[in-house]
Amino acid sequence: MSTYAKSLTSAHKAFLADLFPGDDLILSPEGMAAFSTDASLERAMPWAVVRPDGREQIEELLRWAHAERMPVYARARGTGRVGNAVPVFGGVVVSMLKMDSVLAVDENDFVAVTQPGVITSDLQAACAAKGLYYPPDPASVKISSIGGNVSTCAGGLKAVKYGVTRDWVLGLEAVLPGGRVLQCGGRSHKDVVGLDLVRLFVGANGKLGLLTEIIVKLIPMPETSASVLVGFGDLHSSLAGANAVFQAGVLPAACEFMDKVTLQAVRQGGETIPLADSAEAALLFKVDGTEEGVAAEVRQIVKALEPLKPVSVETGRGDEEEAIWTIRRGISPAAFRIKPNKVAEDISVPRSKVAEAVDSAHEIGRKHGLTVLCFGHLGDGNIHVNIMHDAAISSEVEAAHKAKDEVFRLAVALGGTISGEHGTGLTKASFVSEQLSQEEIDTMVSIKQVFDPHSIMNPGKGW
Amino acid sequence: MCGKCISVCPLINATNREELGPRAKADLCRLLEDDESLLAGEDVAKLAGLCLGCHRCKSVCSQGVDVPGLVATLRAAHPDFKGWLWKTWLTNAKQLWSASSTAAKLIPKQFQPEKLGPFLKMLAGLKGGPGLEPFLTAETFSDTYRGEKMLLFAGCTATHVQGRWLMTALRLLDGLGVEVLPGKFQCCGGGLKSAGFADEAGQLAQENIDVWREAGRPKIVTFCESCLSGLSGYEAFLDDLKEIELWKNSLTPLSNLLQNTSFMVSDNVPENIGYHRPCHVDEVDSDYVFLKNALGEHLTVATEKECCGFGGVMRLGAPGLADEVNLQCWDALSGADMVVSGCSACVAQLSSTHPEGRQVGHWLELIL
């Protein structure tokens, strides 16, 4: 166990003030408060916040932090849901927002080189301007940064076809504790020389070093897309429907599902959604590619679903496609019509176990007297389980947390994971050992020690 | 706390300083609820000043958190000279905005420290004058609204300074066959409300609602997005949900009425015209749709998420930060010989900050 610095001494402050002049160092409580929390609502105050605008400053910072045993917490836009950006041991929060340039979009190499603070949708827009496509699209794509996406291995709607962030990172540059600079991978789309250090950093949650540059793979922008919203009379028909589509040989870009309670919540919002009133579950497919390919895949999907007797089928292109996706985008605000607070978990199970997972999650909710919404990325078996409650009623908070524990155990028992996207951070840290074996954890600890011998990088979090 | 607001905040986009953003302010307000004694602190007053009041954060929040509203409440709790000056400016518009020349001269000398320079320059920008050289002529007016009775909410700037905006608006309504009802509206109160003067703003709201009721609750035509936003925030002063709906439905941008009216473009049209989208615009920007239809290929550049940096009280409290926001806006408008907008505050701010050789005005000035 490392012995960390206990506070920021005047010498520490002088060092930071020299390295980060003016507004780029924050020491006042009201200024630092913004950096004490993230979308998880967990909170801990840092001792200082710094804003580097280049690698050299970060090298100096980590040389100092390594020597001083100073906890270091990387932060981009604080959209993470599990508290990975929360500085539980105090220390220094490093805000990466100033490193926000797209350095290159190369239409010959099919790569983009970017700094970590770029908003992912801005990176996508820069690529799209050259007819290129960076597919990973976490729900936060317009508000989160590529550095955060890489650090958390962000998933998203289109992971079923395109994979997650890990599948798109070709290379990166990171500064390690002690100030060493590690450059690994590159612009080559294939590389089998040595251990895959690039992938080690993707999803490492800032526990190995600070990312300063990222190289991602690009593909040509799909010509067009279409979406199909299908209503079913019951949950099991919808899950069988997803299976039928895959069995028919279609790999959709997205395959989302929504359960009865989710649909009820969205309908209460009064928005017109192109779905039959009798639908108690829905599937939302997106396909992309060439005009001909998309048209054929839409036909295949509709045909594959016929035997399951869907209660409504709505196909959309262009503006109509946007209208279809209103239902999916409406879920998050709609959930709060049920109860003012939610425990939002994102378990992932093998695709064949989704029906059992959803049924059991609902049963767990019933047992604890709480409403549970299930929706999400059916194609990956990644289910968002929202346990709705009122935080002002202590018995409901207690019940919600008990339900959460049971949902985690359910996921592991089904051969799945406690988190397909959000990570473990603070909120799920205590459950990591129920999923990972001691051997796995010991190996991870050993690997981390190579990069960060004093464990100053994002300490106090789960794996 | 999801962070959606961070990506739309012009202040963060210009500075990359998360502590200046909406989530930080909402979070601080929550922390302060636990300890009211902190409310007296100088730091809170400082925080209260650092919001442009653009409402972009409010419009994207899944949980409907109104950060500009929270900031206005803080400002109300901590009036200081900046707020006083703002109030003075707004409540004495007619005296300050003398159509003859610079309004800045009318600000009392003790309120002219160096850092207020840019703000005073903006005041100076708010003067009458020849404006842009028009090049759009209405050819065929739409018949959709012919014979309908409507009220015209001209707003402070058009009423007191830019009389030509008002005259053009009246001419267009006449062409559409709209019967403009008499009605003596007051200021919308939006600026006062965000500066922390809720009581004064409420009084104005009440008077404006009475004008509407007396006229038989007709459509109210506006041509300033700030005014429209101010008027949209009157829920608390209306009788019930039914009247709130009637009120909201009555608020009609002038550009919306002009969607099916065709315009002819004269030869003196500049090659590159820019459009600045005001922060207060909702998802559908009827000014942009109208201008794109009327100007076609001449409209070559438009802002999307950049704020002009007007910023109300913030302009007084932290002019340097507002300038950074403004610079980013001009950067997005580079290439435009002429920039138009549909908000009096944006037009004032851009008029007083435009780079050499650019012209700025309300889009009404383009119409003969």
Short key terms for the protein model shown above:
heterodimer; A: about 475 residues; alpha+beta; Uridine Diphospho-n-acetylenolpyruvylglucosamine Reductase, domain 2; Uridine Diphospho-n-acetylenolpyruvylglucosamine Reductase, domain 3; Alpha-Beta Plaits; 7-stranded antiparallel β-sheet; 16 helices; B: about 375 residues; alpha/beta; Glutathione S-transferase Yfyf (Class Pi), Chain A, domain 2; Rossmann fold; 4-stranded parallel β-sheet; about 45% helix
Describe the protein in words.
The complex is a heterodimer of chains A (463) and B (368). Chain A has helices at 10-19, 29-32, 55-68, 120-128, 146-152, 159-162, 197-201, 235-247, 260-268, 291-305, 319-329, 331-335, 354-367, 394-413, 432-435, 438-451; strands at residues 25-26, 48-50, 72-75, 92-95, 102-106, 111-114, 132-133, 169-175, 181-185, 210-217, 219-220, 224-232, 254-258, 281-289, 312-316, 341-348, 372-377, 382-389. Chain A has 463 residues and is α+β, with helices and mostly antiparallel strands. Chain A has 4 domains: 10-97, 2-Layer Sandwich (Uridine Diphospho-n-acetylenolpyruvylglucosamine Reductase, domain 2); 102-220, Uridine Diphospho-n-acetylenolpyruvylglucosamine Reductase, domain 3 (2-Layer Sandwich), CATH 3.30.465.10; 224-330, 2-Layer Sandwich (Alpha-Beta Plaits); 338-423, Alpha-Beta Plaits (2-Layer Sandwich), CATH 3.30.70. In chain A, α8 (235-247) crosses α10 and α13 (354-367) packs antiparallel against α14 (394-413). The relative contact order of chain B is 0.15. Mean pLDDT of chain B is 83; it is low at 93-116. Chain B folds into 3 domains: 4-78, no CATH class; 136-257, Glutathione S-transferase Yfyf (Class Pi), Chain A, domain 2; 263-366, Rossmann fold, CATH 3.40.50. Chain B has a 4-stranded parallel sheet, sandwiched between helices. Chain B has a 4-stranded parallel sheet with strand order 8-7-9-10, with helices on both faces. Chain B has a two-stranded antiparallel ribbon with strand order 1-6. Chain B has 368 residues and is of the alpha/beta class. Chain B has helices spanning 4-8, 10-15, 22-33, 42-49, 56-60, 67-77, 81-91, 93-96, 117-125, 155-160, 163-175, 190-194, 198-214, 225-232, 241-250, 254-257, 286-295, 313-317, 319-332, 344-353, and strands at residues 136-140, 149-153, 179-180, 219-222, 251-253, 262-265, 273-276, 299-302, 338-341, 359-362. In chain B, α4 packs across α6. The A-B interface holds A 23, 26, 28, 30-35, 37-39, 41, 49, 51, 77-79, 95, 97-98, 100, 117, 119, 140, 142-144, 332-333, 336 and B 1-4, 6-7, 12, 15-19, 21, 23-24, 27-28, 31, 43-44, 47, 62-63.
